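Design job #97: recover the sequence.
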């Protein structure tokens, strides 16, 4: 290597070194350490002691682990499809040429910018069984609202409904995808006498299928890692641990019970679950996702 090449390589490394150091310190090392700690009895305050696969074996016998996993699965199964349908519907409406379109786009996007803790406090009042706005609205149409915050049967549905509040990010992504759909496809559909629903089903949705896949994968990751809102609204997963989610139990093990090794094992199990679901989504998408030019 010539002196000039050596100087260029040194300069390139120096420019990249902040990112490399940050990657090593804040991602690579914690990732490797968490793998090691998941096989250890580690309380943070003492040195880790190697115990093999005992943390994983104990998790398989842990009733709370399975309870939190089922609660999280319930939330993901209902919140993810609901959020995707609402986001796509809003994007379709906002893609039409109506007056005040910029205002409506901003109006539907702004709620997703509200900080999570503030959002949780707001909806604590909204879901109040006696004086909440949700039950007041239901009462206005003759429906007696449930005790959202204290009834185990309604606590998770309340969080599912709340999840719709934050669809603004996905809506904007869908809207960007809709604006890339070729106009000539709609013109051809009109010539064939297609209805609005037929154009949506046979033109719009196939053309934005890569965007749908992206939001699906991001939604899987987001719903399985739900934490802040239920942690604030339902301390300890009350009532009756009906809202005690996986990440809440992981957090409690790590920082409340000082069982960091146990929490690391939970983290890697969640990683494997997300990885498997993502791979399944990608595999199923091979027949249903249309990429332009393919």
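Job complete. Output follows.
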């Amino acid at each position: 290597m010539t002196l000039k090449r050596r100087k260029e390589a040194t300069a390139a490394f120096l420019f990249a070194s902040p990112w490399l150091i940050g990657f090593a310190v804040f991602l690579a090392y914690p990732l490797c350490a968490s793998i090691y700690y998941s096989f250890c009895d580690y309380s943070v305050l003492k040195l880790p002691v190697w115990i093999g696969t005992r943390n994983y074996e104990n998790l398989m016998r842990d009733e709370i682990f399975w309870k939190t996993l089922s609660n999280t699965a319930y939330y993901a199964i209902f919140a993810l499809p609901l959020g995707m349908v609402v986001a796509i519907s809003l994007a379709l409406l906002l893609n039409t040429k109506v007056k005040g379109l910029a205002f409506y786009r901003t109006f539907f996007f702004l709620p997703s910018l509200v900080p999570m803790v503030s959002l949780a406090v707001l909806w604590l009042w909204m879901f109040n069984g006696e004086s909440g706005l949700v039950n007041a609205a239901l009462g206005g149409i003759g429906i007696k609202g449930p005790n959202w915050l204290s009834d185990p049967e309604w606590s998770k549905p309340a969080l599912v409904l709340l999840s719709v509040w934050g669809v603004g990010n996905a809506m904007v992504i869908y809207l960007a995808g809709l604006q890339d759909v070729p106009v000539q496809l709609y013109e051809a559909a009109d010539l064939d006498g297609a209805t609005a629903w037929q154009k949506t089903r046979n033109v719009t949705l196939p053309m934005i299928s890569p965007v749908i896949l992206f939001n699906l994968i991001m939604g899987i990751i987001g719903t399985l890692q739900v934490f802040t809102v239920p942690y604030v609204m339902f301390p300890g997963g009350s009532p009756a641990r009906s809202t005690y989610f996986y990440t809440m139990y992981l957090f409690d093990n790590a920082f409340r019970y000082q069982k960091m090794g146990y929490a690391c094992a939970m983290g890697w199990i969640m990683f494997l679950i997300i990885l498997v679901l993502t791979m399944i989504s990608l595999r199923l998408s091979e027949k249903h996702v249309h990429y332009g030019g393919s």
